[in-house]
Structure formats: C-alpha cells, structure tokens
Fold each of these.
Amino acid sequence: MPPLLDGLRILIVEDEFLIAMDVEQLCRDHGAADVAIVRGLTEIDEHDLPSHFDAAVVDLMLDGVSTLDFAARLRSTGVPFVFATGYSDSDDLRNAFPEIRLVGKPFSGDDLVAALAAACGRAAAA
C-alpha cells in the first residue's frame, strides 16, 4: 500500500515557521513528492496554482490577514485543500466552506494527513 500522500505536490500556507516545517516533514514522511511553504499570500503566483500543486494545507490567518479569498480561489481552480487553524470556531469559515475539512490546532499529524488524503480522494487503510 503506497503512502497516503504518495507523489503529491503540496502547498503549505502557514506563517508559523515551526508549524510549517513540521507539516512539511509530515507530508514528506507520508510520500509527498514535493512540498512548498509560503508564509504570506504575496508569495503565491495564483495563476499557476493548479499546474504546480495537487493539494494545499491552509491556515485561516496569516499575520492577521484572512486567507478566505485565497481558499475560494483554490476551490474555483479545483485544488483540494484543508484548513489547519487555531480559529476552528470561525462561523465565516464554516459558512463559506462547509465541505472543506478543518483540522484544529494543535493537531495530530495523523489527523492532518488523513484530512489531506481525504480531500484528494484517497482513503486511509482500515
């Protein structure tokens, strides 16, 4: 059975350096082919998102700036993603993205990997 994230190219949108590094290692440990970290939305060329990434892990707030607009663009371009955030009680988030998995911080690595795999249509072994 291949790893859950086998071969995927994953974008991590996270402004907390240590969390971003942990998530990157987690993705690589579960088979991701490539992982890119961006700590601010200005670092992202949104026109190339679908061609460069298969999935994304998105924090709701980057330096006090909401990522909801960016998440809407991910959804419109068909890039699967999950939210990994400390703002798990956000009504704006639940109302705007009821179908998107939300993994609350602090999260376990297994929960995050399972949510990301599910978003990509991959299921964990029973």
Amino acid sequence: MFDTMLLDSSENSIKKASDLIRTGEVVGMPTETVYGLAANAFNENAVRKIFAAKGRPADNPLIVHVSSFEEISPLVTEIPVLARKCAELFWPGPLTMIMPKSDMIPMVTSGGLDTVGIRMPSNNTARAFIKECSCPIAAPSANLSGSPSPTTASHVLNDMKGRIPAIIDGGACGVGVESTVISFEGDGIRLLRPGFVSAEDLREVTENVLIDKGVLEMLDENARVSSPGMKYKHYAPKAEVSIVCGNSGEFNGFCMKNASADDVLMVFDESDAAGLENRLLVLGKSDEEQAQRLFDALRELDEMGAKKVYARCPNKTGVGLAVYNRLLRAAAFRVIVP
C-alpha cells in the first residue's frame, strides 16, 4: 500500500515523479485524452505493476508514449511512409500508431504482440514528464480495468489511492476519450479504436481507411487484438446501460413508454427529455462536448446510485463514432431500435 501523493504540474513535481519512474514505480499522469498510468516501457517489472494496479488482463497491449518523433526509431523496426505523414498532420496529439516493435520493447509491454502502439501526446505536462524520465513511457488509462476512464486527477485518486505512489494533477483532460488507434496495411490505414482524430481526418492522408469490425462489434474472448479497448468490457458503470437509437422525438417517445421514474436518461440536452421527470445526465449537443463529458458522466451514474440508464445514441461519424464506441462497451452492446 502507498500513501498516494497528489502532485501539481510544476517542474519540481515533474522531477519528483520522474524519479519514481526511474526507480521502477508507476505514476498517474495527465494527457489531453485521459489520465494514464505511467511506467518505464523498457522495465518489465514496472510494466507488470501497471497491470497489477489496474487489474488488467496481460494480453491487453499498452500504448508507449514519447516526447518527440526522433524517439520512435529505437522502438520499431520500420516506420511506414503513412506513419510519417500521419505524424506530420496529427502529432503531437491524440493518435496512436501501431508499428512492428524492436527487441527493446518487452513482450509484457506489447501484450505478447510483435507490434507496439506509439503516440506523442499534445499535453505539455505529459511531454515534459516523458522528457524528464529519459525513457519511453507505457501508459494505459489510469482506472481500474473495466471502469470508466479518468479525466481528472480526482478520478485517478478514487481508483488508485494506495495502489500507486503519486499522481500528477494536470487539470481536466480536454479531449475526454482515449486516443485514436490505427495500423497500416500497404497504402491503407485500419482504424482499430476511434477517437478525436476521426476516420474523416485520416482520409486527408489516404482515401483507403478501413474501420475494423471490432469498433462496432463484440469480439470473441479468444481473439488477439493489437489495440487496447477492443476486446474486454470497458468503461462500465454499475448501472445497466442501454443505447436507444433515433432522433430526439423517438428517444423521448421510447422513454415515455418504457423508462420508470427511477431510471436515468443520458441525453444531448434537456429537450430530449421534455415532459419526463427522470433524472438526467446531459452530455452536450456537439460530438466534441459529448466526448469530453462522457467518462465523467459514466462515473456520475455510480455516484447517483443509478440502476438502469437509457442513453441517446450518438452520431456514428466524426468524433461521434468514438463516443458511440465507448458507450457500446459501457452498455455491453445493448442497443435498442424503437
């Protein structure tokens, strides 16, 4: 058990946190997407501490974070041409690119795969921390495995108090959902996990963008996946969540007939629940607002003691696809078409 320290994002705090990384410990760190559990990606024992702290399955690969493009070369055996183009457009930022790993990346970090996902966060505190550590940082989301990802330091403390020695408080995350994850196939890009960098954005690099079936479908438990967030139940509150498809009127009509007074409605704005007296969680009208708010809202459901939740279905294009992908997993793929 640790007496978990909550550090600010000052230079001194970053140095204190990087000293912990050098001794093989795990630290909670902010990024623009969600908070991560950081450890030296080269240190097998430190990486195993991440899995232990999260209760995470060992075949779920970790994303390796760098502070500059030049840091990638030792980590991979090749950098595809499309990866360079993506880096030019989207780095630093919420995009993870999967490439063939070098022997420097331990199998425990890559989840037993011969590939590794790498990204360079745009969050200034994250990059300063990685640079100070002088090593690439393996960092999945800093939550207990399966629960909603954390977008504030207090979320991390709630899940990780006593499990890790320190958390850097960098404020609320601006994006709110984990990074987009892609792999490369010849002259094409495969979208494995949607995020703030959308399929439409990726088509600026190549028209050949394929959305993997794991984005919208439940994969077999025995399937091997190259991206986190594809296989296991994720982001789930204690309540039973169901996604209700349709426009505002159709959502309202369904809830009018089927939602009991105790059920919670997750809506874009209050007009979705006109005439209803249910408790509401408002995500926002735009895809970006919904992404930033989603995980906070899923955690609020537990605080509310919610038992059953009906969520209005997000868009399935742009950033909305990322919101829908996360909600699908929070709802264990329960989708209602009225």
Amino acid sequence: MGTSTQAYGEPWYWDNRYSSESGPFDWYQKYPSLAPLINLYIPRHVHPRILVVGCGNSAFSEGMVSDGYEDVVNIDISSVVIEAMKKKHSNHPQLKYIEMDVRDMSEFQSGSFDAVIDKGTLDSILCGNDSRNNATKMLKEVWSNEFEKLLVLLSLMADKLLSDEGSEHPIQELTNPVPIDDNGSSVEAVLGKNPDVHYIYVCTKDESLKPEQKA
C-alpha cells in the first residue's frame, strides 16, 4: 500500500486511508469465519452488550447484528470513519459508533459491556511509535473498566513464516482451544513447526480474584 507498517499505529494514517477508501475492509477474517467462536463465547440468548474496539469500516459488526446480536457499540480513533459509519448505519439502532481512543475509555461506566472484541487494533498499536507503552495503556484500560461477565479479546496476529514444505498443516477446529504449556511446544505439536495461521486469544475474568471475594 506504499506505506510502512509503522504508520498503522498513527491516527493520521487511518484518517487518510478512510478518506480515500469508502468500501468496507476486514482485516484477517470476516465475521462468518469467526461466527462459531463468537457464538460460543458470547451467546446471543443472553442479549449481551458488546464493544468492538478499532472498528474501522469493517462489516464485522454488521455481520453480528445480522446474526442476531442486538447491541453492538463500535469505537475508533478516526473521526473520518466514525462519521461515515454513523451515516451508513443510521437505520440500524443495534449498531452504535463513537469516536474514541482505546487508550482512554473513561467515557464508559464500569460494567457497561459483557464482552470486548478486538480484531487487529492491538496489532496496529504495536506497529506505531512507543508501541509497548501504548499497548499497555490499551490493555490496562480494557481491564480497568471492569467489563463484567466475559471479556473476549481477539487479536489475530498473522504468522506467515511458511516452512520449506509449504503450508500443508493440520486443520484445527476453530472452537477447539489449543493448549499452551510454558514453552508453547503444544501449539507446535498440534499445528506444525511454522503454521500459516492467525492467532485468536480468548480472555475471561477470574471471578475469584475480585477483592471482595478474597475478603
């Protein structure tokens, strides 16, 4: 695209990109590919309120609504894309779009959401300047807001280091977690030495760690 990956961590890059590209774009995977996992960890029948961070102009949230989710809030640092998405989905009350920096979500009250979904935002932040500090801010902000019940953080970080033998690796069912031991060898045992994959991290809160329960 004629730019370095470092630009992915800068707000100006996204404003420029969304000003010139109006069509929807999904990083890594589209909603239908991830629907089994989303349905598993965020059941529709409990009517969850979901936050999608770094939404961009992705059709992912639109896919969730079409799949039966009724309350999906989307945030992005780019005012350009937020205004465009507000206009595009003005007739869809299930979808809300707010301009916001994921490193400061103080506008939301504690317990506002049942789940948080990130599809590429953490990756973008890790590409920018002061990446470690900014990534830490993002993760602390997500956790400090004390989103209740379930937190799902999906960061699909591409690993395209193919082995000499090609990309023929065992197919792993999406809803079957891959166990990880201390040195990560179990992932290699299941997927091969250099798997051509995206990584999905599902994080849930341990209720036993709450201060009031410790007391």
Amino acid sequence: MLTAEQAERGIDAGASFLVTPGCRPEVAQAARTRGVPVVLGALTPTEVARAVDLGAAAVKIFPARSFGPGYFKDLRGPYPDVPLVASGGVNAGNAAEFLAHGALAVCAGTDVVPPSAVEAGDWAEITRRARAFTRACAAGA
C-alpha cells in the first residue's frame, strides 16, 4: 500500500492488515481510523522510530538483504520490543538466520514465487519452493 486510497480499497475488500514498502503516514492514518493493523516499511533506525510513532503493529525492514541478518541484532539494541519483519532478499538459505538475529517474521517474495512460475502456472514448483522455505524457517526456530 502506498496511498490512503489504496489502504481504504484494501480494507473495503476485506484486508485484515496492511503492509507498506516504506513509512507511509497516510496509510498508517487510514489503518488507524479503520482499526486495521499496519506493518510499515523502514530501513534506518530513524525510520523504525517513525514507524513506531505512526502506530505500526510491526516494522518491515526492507531491503533486509542489503544489511543482512546482523542488522536485526543491531536494531534490537535501541528497539528491543519492536516487532521487526525481514523483507527483500530473504530466501530458504538465509531466513533462519534473520529469525535467529531478531526478526519476528520473514517475508518470501520472488525466491518462493518467481514470476516465471506464476506465468507458466507451475503451481507444483511454487508449492515445492514454499515447503522448502517453511522447512528452512522451522529449522531455525
């Protein structure tokens, strides 16, 4: 979600939570007004603080790959109680490490659901990738 209008449409369509790629005050306001939790995107410690101030239920660190799992351990220092979600470049090979370093959750993207597999209708391959990702996350728990 990038705009309040998109947030409203999502909520009207039945969304039980919203996610943004960055700190989007207008999306946070729409979510708050409608009583829907929002996960705001951030990268820097300042952006994490802003997301918390805007009422984020959790903060999505994006792109997580750029700073790596150790960055989550670093963010735990000043933000020990903020739920952090790793997004961007998370895959079966590194998901458990993000979780071990302080991420509450991880997001899977094109590594699990490649656009080419969707286009080809290769649901078996997507299922295989999703199961591998889930197993990798569970192994790190």
